[in-house]
Amino acid sequence: MLSFLPAPLLGLIASVLMLLNILLWVPILLVVSFVKLLLPFKPVRLAVDPLLLRIAEAWIAGNSGWMRLTQRMDWDVTGIEALSPRQWYLVVCNHQSWVDILVLQHVLNRRIPLLKFFLKQQLIWVPIMGLAWWALEFPFMRRHTEAYLKQHPEARGQDAATTRAACEKYALVPTSVMNFLEGTRFTLPKQARQQSPYRHLLKPKAGGLTLALDAMGEKFGAVLDVTIAYPDGAPNFWQFLQGRVPRVIVQARTLAVPQLPAQGTPNPEQALRELGQNWVNQVWREKDALLDTLLATHKFIKK
Question: Is the pTM of this model over 0.85?
Answer without folding.
Answer: yes
